[in-house]
Structure formats: structure tokens, C-alpha cells
Amino acid sequence: MSSPTRQIHLAAHFPGVNNTTVWSDPRSGSHIAFESFVHFARTAERAKFDFLFLAEGLRLREQRGRIHDLDVVGRPDTFTVLAALAAVTDRLGLAGTINSTFNEPYEVARQFASLDHLSDGRAAWNVVTSWDAFTGENFRRGGFLAEEQRYERAELFLRTASELFDSWRGDEIVADKESGVFLADAKAGAFEHHDAHFDISGQFTVPRSPQGRPVIFQAGDSDAGREFAARSADAIFSRHSTFDAGQAFHADVKRRLARYGRAPEDLLVLPAATFVLGDTDAQARERAEEVRRQQVSGATAIQFLEQVWNRDLGDHDPDGPLPEVDPQPGENTVAQGRASVRMYEDRLATARRWREIAEAGKLTTRELVIEVSGRQAFVGSPATVADTINRFVQARAADGFILVPHITPAGLDEFADTVVPLLQERGVFRADYTGTTLRDHLGLAPVPGWPVHAV
Amino acid sequence: MTGPTAPGELRLAVALDGCGWHPAAWREPDARPRELFSGRYWTELVQEAERGRLDFVTIEDTLALQSSRYDGPDGRVDQVRGRLDAVLVAARAAPRTRAIGLVPTVVVTHTEPFHVAKAVATLDHVSSGRAGVRVRVRAGRDEAAHFGRRDLPPARPADLFDEAADYVEVMRRLWDSWEDDAEIRDVATGRFIDRDKLHHIDFAGRWFSVRGPSIVPRPPQGQPLVTALAHAAVPYRFAAGSVDLVHVTPRDAADAARILRDLRAEQAAAGRLAESLRVFADLVVFLDDAEGRAAARRARLDELAGREFRSDAAVFAGTPAGLADVLEEWAGAGIDGFQLRPAGVPTDLTAITRGLVPELRRRGLVPPEYGAGTLRGLLGFPRAANRYAAAPPEPAAT
């Protein structure tokens, strides 16, 4: 190889509330008990992962007006769990999704700066936006945001929060007992911000945190989302986990960086990736099929179909062929609180494609859903999976992966015990942490100091 | 008035804030002002409180820099300034402690009840039933300007307490919005939850509406403890109607008896039973085993601060045995427990845990060990009943 070997970044996504997570398995533990989070975090830290990741949803999903009951339901508060995990880990990065629509910059900046202090520099923020009035029903603000404004608000929210993070330079606290001077500057934390969304001023309460600012993640895939990431994020939580799509996405977002005076290494591309391991590739494939059947029960297949068909299919037999009736066009009224329904905006075309696949393979509704609803990204023996991950990273289809196990909390253990040592042997993944902060693990340059970055 | 547990027993808490409650406490030789923003500092303080078998700690917070003024920063550089989020400080301490209650302060005037309810519920899960929340109203223009959402002060300050009452009501409904046995994991039908045991709360009030249910399953205590500090009639009315434990600031035993009469009258007017509300008295304490040394330290700190120390709460400077006499007298007036504000940390915190507590134990006023597994249990409360548990299932919407 002429070019230097690229180092892989690995992170662990705590199993979430969609059907990727298999709760029906006898090994599946609590999704709420803190012991589950401790087990998961300690496995990730033992394996020298870059960070652990928690997702967020601010309203329980509903289908046809009733709370969705087929997947894991409920999860704890992101900030509170991450702060508690800071007490039981030493190096692992602690990343969480926090919504920029149903929060205020002053409060969120305070929470992330506090988390960064309490974890000695390990905090990361996945900035997401939502627009739906459905989620807004849980908040003072309500569902006020027009969809086309969501990236505008996210950008301004992040810019405002960054001004708050930067409002303390880092040298204000002298705490000189002899002279009685605690603060070198009475105006420490002073800020003023006025734009279309935020009209705030005053003094911020949290002194500059170890990383300066939390590491910023962005997860959107639209053109606006990619542009937002290129301008403002440290890492992209992407969903392009196949090789060709990964390479195209990687090249696309890295190309956008120059426009903002940033270098390719300033933004990491980290796709989410599921995996199934086995002693052999054949055994892993068998296990993967079994996991897919666990993930898509008959009832889950019907609910999945309803999201595309946009109508009540409660009487449809999942073990029979697809329904003869076509999807209902117009606004999706069946599933609420899900981002995924937006992926099927052209429902008639989707249904047509699915009918072709089902007819070609003589598939029942459930088999069809298993076929079309996302396969595991990496399936194979530890050696196969290690080689595949390494190939993706060396060929710039990704800078690393956010692994999504399907079992809580032990679904990461086998990967940590079998795949990670192989990557370490190949010299493409750290044998131990060399730094203390998450920015260190990700190879990101330190946040430039005061004065506030030019925007 | 009925005490929380055994007759004659009193409950003890400490209020943690910076390097202590005296503004010059950070200049004491053993103070650690440069560590105020670390997890280790707060964890060690809570662990010390737990070694003294205190029932709980509160952690002070506001959404503005500390100030000697009510309406904005005072520009002072000779006192501790800067603070971490109290809920996250409590969460950071939770895995490193096992029995003590954790009660962070939350400003309700500017925050979302949905977010705070789920954070406190999660603190309860993380600590296995030791969470509480001290709700705080803030009328200052400076905090309002940090959020830019409302103009303060409003025409009627009482509105802010009515809003706080709605806020507490929403939190309690959200905590109840999952019944305890809602998670069923029924593999045969593919259902993870029994959705008839999850409830929309449908709160609609003057300041906000919240649909629910919570995203967090019911906390171990059912409802974490809700507390508030109250000094006057309007907050007494709020506390008597809404919280489980109220902190008050009597000047002496007679004042304590007067405050208790007012509170109990408000409670009766709100239709609540006396035993549903614990009344704690707050005191700032300077402690030293040697007669006169605590007062001398207070004088020395006052000199460093450039003025005499004043507080909303009574100030005690003396020996642990002298403080025990005061607590015993006030308990006789009907006070259920005490929240001590150490003037200096660690000095006065360790004087509480290693001096006062053994003295109270000798007098049979505090138990030797933690007897209950939850904060509500330590205070003699049963697990909170669920308002929705007996309700009929929600009809399916069509």
C-alpha cells in the first residue's frame, strides 16, 4: 500500500426503539435499568471504542391513533444517563441526540458544558431537528416550526450554543485565596445573540469545559443536512452502510468541506451498521436469517406495510400475499412519531416495486417485509467482518462505524471479544486510548480558543 | 404533629452549594474552589453526606450566575461564580452512592415540564429510587433574557407559583403515565407493552398543555420526591398544595410553630392530609467542637467578605452539641427535619457528619443505619399510588 493505513473509528449505539432491537430473545435485558447501560458502556470501553451513543425520541410512536406496542417502548433521559455513565467509565466518549426544536440554546448549552466537565471532556451532541406538531404536543412551544425552517433553526441553535460555549475563554477562574480574587473578569460568560429564532442576552453560568465545546454530530441526509454538516459538524451519523453508497456519500460530504475552509479530516463519516457474527460465515448467515425473522413478526410486517399503504391493514394475513388494494395517497395519517415514513413518499411506486419482488420470489407479506426492510450490514465470521470493516475504511466508504447490536445489553460483547482483537492485530484500531477526550479519540483538532469563531 | 418515622426521630439533609454558603468560604485553607467544576468534587461531598447517614442532599441551581442582587449579575469577582447543571451533578453522583437521596434544584419558570419530568424519572431509575427534585420559581429579568421567551416580572408574582403548581401536576401525571406493569414482553402476540397501561395525560392549563405519556417508564418510587423552599404566604400555599416536602426558614422555635400553623391551614384548605407534607427547617451552620471557635471563624470570614453574613435562614455558630439542642427544641415545635447549609465545605459538612450526627444518635434522635431503600421510604412516605392504575382502558381512537 502506498497510502498510509487509515485508523478505524468504532462506536456503540445503545439498542433503540425500532424493530432492529430484538426484545423477544431470552437474552434480552432491560432497556431502562441502569445496569444495562453500565454493561453496554463497559463493554465499549473495554474494546477501546471511541464513544457510546444514545438516541432520543420525545413522543412515543403511535399507529392508527394508538401507542405502538410491537417494538421496545420507552427510554431514559439522554443527559441523565450520560452523566451517570461518566461515573462508571474513564475514557469512553458519551454522545447523545438532543433536539434543537423543543429545547432552548441556553439550557442545552448548559447541559452539554456540564456533561463535558463531569466527564472530563467526553461529551458529544447529535443535533437533530423535528417539525411535527405531534411531538410538539408535549411542549410549551408546541409544533410551531415549519418543516422548511428546521435546518435554519438547527443552524442558528448550534451557532447560538457555540457562542455560549465560547463565552468563557477558560482563564477566568483564578480562585486566589490570598488576594480574594475568584474571577479575573466580571464579564465572564457575557453573551448577546439576536436572530430570527433566538433573541437572548446575559451571562452563561458554566465555565469553559475541557473540550471547549462538545463534539458535534449531524444525522440528516438531505442536501441541506449535508451542507449543515459540512459547515458545522465534527462527524456525520450516516445511514449509508453499503460499500458503493458509502463511498459516494463519503466523497460527497468531504468535497463540501473546502467551501467552508475545512480539511477532509475535520469531518468524520460514521455510518450506523448492524452486524451478526458466527464461527463461520455460513453460521453467521444462518443466525442473520433467524434475527431477521425475530425482527419482523407477522404483526410487525403488517404495521410496516401500513406505513407505506397509509391505511388500516389490521385484517390482512401476514402469511399470505400482499394486499390487492393500493396505497392511500396524501398525507400519512397512520404512523406518527417516526422519521422513517418519509422514506416512502412515493407510496404507489414503492408498492409497485414490492409487488414485483414478492411475485418474483413468491414471497408472503412477512417474507417480503423481511426482504425489503434493511439487512444487517456485516454478516460473517469475526475475520470476515474485521476484513470487511477494514476494507470499507481503507477504501473511504466510511471513517468508521457506529455499531447497532440487536440485543440489550450484551449484544456488543461478542464483537468486542472477537472482532476488535483482529482489528488491533491488523494495526487499524487502537490497542489502548492515547488521549483523554473524545476529540482526542476522533483525531479532531482542539476547538480554537477565544475569541469566538467567525461565522 | 406526626413525625415521619419513630416518635422523637428527626430527619437530616444538607444543602450543597459551591464551597459552602458563606461567600468567603472558598478562601478557607481546606476549600477546593478550583475543583468546583469536576465530577469528583461533587461525588466526594455526597459520599461524605452518606457516611453521616443523612437522608438526602439538595444541590443548588439557578439559570443565571450567582449574584447578591435579585435582578441580574452584581459584577463581583470576589465570590464563587459559575455552576454546573444540578440534575447532571446528581446523576454523576448516583452510581457512586447507594442510599442517600439526591435532590437537584430545577427552575420551573423557564424549563419544559416534559424534559424535567423525564430527567428526574431517569435519576430515580439510575439511583434505584433515591431521586427528588426541588422546584424553584425565578422572577428575575436576567434569567428571562437567557431564554428570550417571556417578559418578566409578570403583573402578578403569584402567577409564577400557580404556573409552578401546574408544572408539578404535569410532572406527577407524567410519572404516573406508565403503570408499573405496562411492560409485558408477550412473545406470543408480539407486544412489548400493554398499551392500555400507558396513558395520555392531556393536561391543558393557562401556561402550557402537555399530551403525554412520558417516554420514561414509571420511576422506582412511583413519583420522585418533590420539594420547595418557601418563605411567605404565596409560596406556602403553593407548597401546601403541591409538594411532598417544604423547606422553611424559622428564626426560632416559636417562629417555627407559627409557620407550621400557616402551612397546615393552607394544606387543609387544599384538602391534603397533614402527613402528606414534611416540613423541614433550613439553618446555615458554622460548627466547631471548641466553644467559641465557630463564631470566631464566622467573624474571620465576615471580615474577608467585607460585611456581616446574612441569610434568609437562621444562622447557627457553635458546637455540634449546641446545634443538637436547637434542633431538638425546634422538633418539639413540630418540625419534621432539618436541612443544614454548611457555611464552609468541607469543614462544616464533616462537622455535621462526624460531630452532629453522632451526637444526635447518642440522643436517640437519628437512626444508626439507612433503613429504607428509597428516598420516600427514608422520609416515611409509602410508594406513590398511581392515579391511572384503576382507570378503565383508553378506548381505541379511530
UniProtKB/TrEMBL annotation, chain A:
Pfam families with a match to the protein in the record: Bac_luciferase
SUPFAM superfamilies: Bacterial luciferase-like
Region entry Disordered, spans: 313-333
CDD domains in the cross-refs: Nitrilotriacetate_monoxgenase
Keywords (A to Z) from UniProt: Flavoprotein, FMN, Monooxygenase, Oxidoreductase
A GO term for molecular function: oxidoreductase activity, acting on paired donors, with incorporation or reduction of molecular oxygen
Residue ranges occupied by any Luciferase-like domain in the UniProt entry: 25-396
Binding of FMN, residues: 97, 151, 222
Top-level taxon of the source organism: Bacteria
Family of this protein: Belongs to the NtaA/SnaA/DszA monooxygenase family.
Protein name: F420-dependent methylene-tetrahydromethanopterin reductase
Organism listed in the record: Parafrankia soli
Automatic annotation (TrEMBL), chain B:
Gene3D superfamilies listed in its UniProt record: Luciferase-like domain
Domain Luciferase-like, residue spans: 37-318
Gene Ontology molecular function terms on file: monooxygenase activity; oxidoreductase activity, acting on paired donors, with incorporation or reduction of molecular oxygen
Binding locations of FMN: 61, 105
Matches recorded under SUPFAM superfamilies: Bacterial luciferase-like
InterPro entries listed in its UniProt record: Diverse_substr_monoxygenases, Luciferase-like_dom, Luciferase-like_sf, NTA_MOA
Keywords linked to the UniProt accession: Flavoprotein, FMN, Monooxygenase, Oxidoreductase
Any matching Pfam family: Bac_luciferase
Classification via PANTHER family: ALKANESULFONATE MONOOXYGENASE-RELATED, C2H2 FINGER DOMAIN TRANSCRIPTION FACTOR (EUROFUNG)-RELATED
Similarity field: Belongs to the NtaA/SnaA/DszA monooxygenase family.
Protein name per the record: FMNH2-dependent monooxygenase
Source organism of the structure: Parafrankia soli
